[in-house]
């Protein structure tokens, strides 16, 4: 056994020039050196690579790094060789000859680290190579890809445990990810076959980031973004858009406004993309407008702002992308611009999701269900009036409670139902407090800052919700009337019809169907359409109503519907009253 602390510190200094480990790193390095499996869950920028690179320099045999990010392997390997750690990669960008050369060099013991994509593990050539060389450590990067419950499931990750079993002697296995909730963590442990792993989950809060949430009244969010970028011309920023088309249009608009901006998306030629990336990293282009293809592994520490033009599909995706701001520890601003049509678009995308052939129809439905839950939590973030830092850290710290409260599309659900569904899946996972794993959790907010609880007194001072005031409006009567109308309509109409009936619309279609004869017809004619819609959305979020999936969503009752019929039913919504943040001077 190696004396972990001294040698690891010496290696950290020698190769990377750092004097001390960051939070969570030392424990993981030590555990690896003590021949244990590990799982490190750390946010982007926390320094996961060091956790396996340092041990790799101290172990006698080879370290294999499994990573899905083929496009980054060359950079990673170059960086390692630059600091004196001999490393190489084998992937499909090389010819068969080149691959052969790397493998024979590796057989000779020329490298400490070898990077491969998970697909490589299934090839005969690579498997036979692994029979011949002593492998001390297998690192699985982006380990959440093994789970169908996360957002980036890759079926090739399911082959990793077979690969490990095929090795002459089982090496230690170190899995890392930036995005793993409890459920995904269980999957990682079970599906990679980690043995009594040391599990380290470092604090997910990024106190230097300002979280800013803006509901945009109009569909065109570009003028706000352009004004912001103009105000922050000396800073580096990323604007994430949902589609390639939006990316290019906004980049052009920014350029027309006199700013240096570039687009980046998967449809561009590789050299164009590389140029855009390089210009951004070298500070020649301050703003990149990108799809989510941009950023995985880009090591640019001085990004000062990340703006999301649309609501992403999950909190995981949002946190990872927004988290690219302020990696140097200096202040960063993460702004999410959203509106109700983003929610509609996301739901539609989810329903038209391509079917993965490897999955049975039941599995496919389960994945879709899980994605709806992820989307539900994202919608919850957009709608919450609570501290945004706290929302995030609770989400990632989840003991199941938060996710159980948020159902598909943000509707609260019967937690019994959800837990039952999950425990089937989790039954074969070996992670649990009783099974001897050491879970080190350091949730900064949970431990230190969340002293006030849910009563509005809590303030992080670093998010737009905590800096704004919300007006509380009693909408009990409106909510009860909406429920009555859902009943009148037999839970078989969409929200458009529902609102039209409630407001006593004279539309011919409504009258010819006799909907004007319903008891609730015109019952909310004195309320604005926006108010009725707001209450309806909020009721869906809180579980009083449910909105079905599909092209024509139908409004029905949710699990809490019965409460609205109680005589003492009281219901409030919060509306933004004063927004104190002043990020843009003239937007
Ligand atoms: P992650 O993979 O978790 O996103 P990286 O491994 O890319 O993070 O590390 C992010 C940055 O932090 C890198 O620039 C890295 O060199 C730096 N870093 C990592 N560990 C330390 C440390 N112990 N001290 C100082 N800087 C560190």
Automatic annotation (TrEMBL):
UniProt entry keywords in alphabetical sequence: ATP-binding, DNA damage, DNA repair, DNA-binding, Helicase, Hydrolase, Isomerase, Metal-binding, Nucleotide-binding
Protein name in the entry: ATP-dependent DNA helicase RecQ
Region feature (Disordered): 406-436
Segments forming domain Helicase C-terminal: 220-375
Cofactor needs: Mg(2+); Zn(2+)
Superkingdom field: Bacteria
Gene3D superfamilies: HRDC domain, P-loop containing nucleotide triphosphate hydrolases, Winged helix-like DNA-binding domain superfamily/Winged helix DNA-binding domain
CDD domains named among the record's database cross-references: DEXHc_RecQ, SF2_C_RecQ
Alphabetical GO biological process terms: DNA recombination; DNA repair; DNA replication
Annotated Gene Ontology cellular component terms: bacterial nucleoid; cytoplasm; replisome
SUPFAM superfamilies: HRDC-like (SSF47819), P-loop containing nucleoside triphosphate hydrolases (SSF52540), Winged helix' DNA-binding domain (SSF46785)
Enzyme class: isomerase
MF (Gene Ontology): 3'-5' DNA helicase activity; ATP binding; DNA binding; four-way junction helicase activity; hydrolase activity; metal ion binding
Pfam assignment, any one: Helicase_C
Domain Helicase ATP-binding: 29-198
Source species: Bifidobacterium aemilianum
Family: Belongs to the helicase family. RecQ subfamily.
Reaction(s) the record says it catalyses: Couples ATP hydrolysis with the unwinding of duplex DNA by translocating in the 3'-5' direction
UniProt EC number: 5.6.2.4
């Amino acid at each position: 056994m190696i004396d972990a602390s001294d040698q690891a510190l010496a290696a950290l200094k020698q190769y990377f020039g750092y004097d001390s480990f960051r939070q969570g790193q030392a424990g993981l390095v030590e555990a690896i050196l003590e021949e244990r499996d590990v799982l490190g869950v750390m946010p982007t920028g926390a320094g996961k690579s060091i956790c396996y690179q340092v041990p790799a320099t101290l172990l006698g045999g080879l370290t294999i790094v499994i990573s899905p990010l083929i496009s980054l392997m060359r950079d990673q390997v170059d960086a390692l060789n630059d600091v004196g750690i001999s490393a190489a990669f084998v992937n499909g960008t090389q010819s068969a000859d080149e691959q052969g050369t790397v493998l024979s060099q590796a057989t000779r013991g020329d490298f400490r680290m070898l990077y491969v994509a998970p697909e490589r593990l299934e090839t005969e050539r690579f498997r036979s190579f692994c029979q011949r060389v002593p492998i001390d450590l297998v690192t699985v990067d982006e380990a959440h890809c093994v789970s169908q419950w996360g957002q980036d499931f890759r079926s090739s990750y399911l082959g990793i445990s077979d690969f490990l079993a095929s090795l002459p002697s089982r090496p230690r296995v170190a899995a890392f990810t930036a995005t793993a909730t409890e459920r995904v963590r269980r999957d990682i442990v079970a599906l990679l076959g980690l043995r009594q792993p040391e599990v380290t989950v470092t604090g997910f809060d990024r106190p230097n980031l300002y979280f800013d949430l803006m509901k945009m009244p109009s569909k065109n969010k570009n003028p706000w973004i352009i004004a912001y970028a103009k105000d922050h011309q000396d800073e580096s920023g990323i604007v994430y858009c949902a589609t390639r088309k939006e990316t290019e249009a906004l980049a052009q608009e920014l350029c027309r406004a006199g700013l240096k901006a570039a687009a980046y998306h998967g449809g561009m030629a590789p050299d164009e993309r590389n140029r855009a990336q390089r210009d951004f990293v070298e500070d020649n282009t301050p703003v990149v407008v990108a799809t989510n293809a941009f950023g995985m592994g880009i090591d640019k520490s001085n990004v000062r702002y990340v703006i999301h033009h649309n609501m992403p599909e999950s909190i995981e995706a949002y946190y990872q992308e927004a988290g690219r701001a302020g990696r140097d520890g200096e202040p960063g601003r993460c702004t999410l611009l959203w509106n109700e049509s983003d929610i509609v678009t996301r739901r539609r995308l989810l329903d038209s999701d391509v079917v993965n052939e490897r999955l049975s129809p039941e599995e496919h439905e389960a994945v879709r269900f899980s994605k709806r839950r992820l989307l539900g939590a994202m919608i919850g973030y957009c709608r919450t009036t609570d501290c945004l830092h706290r929302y995030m850290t609770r989400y990632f710290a989840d003991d199941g409670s938060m996710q159980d409260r948020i159902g598909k599309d943000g509707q609260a659900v019967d937690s019994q139902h959800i837990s039952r569904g999950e425990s089937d899946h989790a039954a074969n996972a070996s992670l649990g407090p009783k099974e001897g794993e050491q879970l080190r959790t350091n949730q900064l907010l949970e431990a230190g800052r969340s002293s006030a609880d849910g009563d509005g007194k809590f303030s992080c001072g670093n998010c737009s919700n905590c800096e704004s005031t919300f007006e509380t409006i009693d909408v009990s009567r409106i909510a009860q009337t909406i429920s009555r109308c859902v009943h009148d309509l037999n839970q078989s109409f969409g929200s458009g019809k529902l609102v039209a009936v409630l407001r006593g619309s004279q539309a011919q279609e409504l009258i010819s169907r006799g909907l004007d004869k319903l008891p609730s017809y015109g019952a909310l004619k004195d309320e604005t359409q926006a108010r009725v819609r707001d209450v309806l959305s909020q009721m869906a979020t809180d579980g009083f109503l449910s909105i079905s999936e599909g092209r024509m969503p139908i409004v029905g009752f949710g699990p809490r519907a019965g409460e609205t019929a109680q005589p003492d039913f009281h219901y409030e919504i919060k509306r933004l009253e004063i927004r104190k943040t002043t990020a843009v001077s003239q937007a």
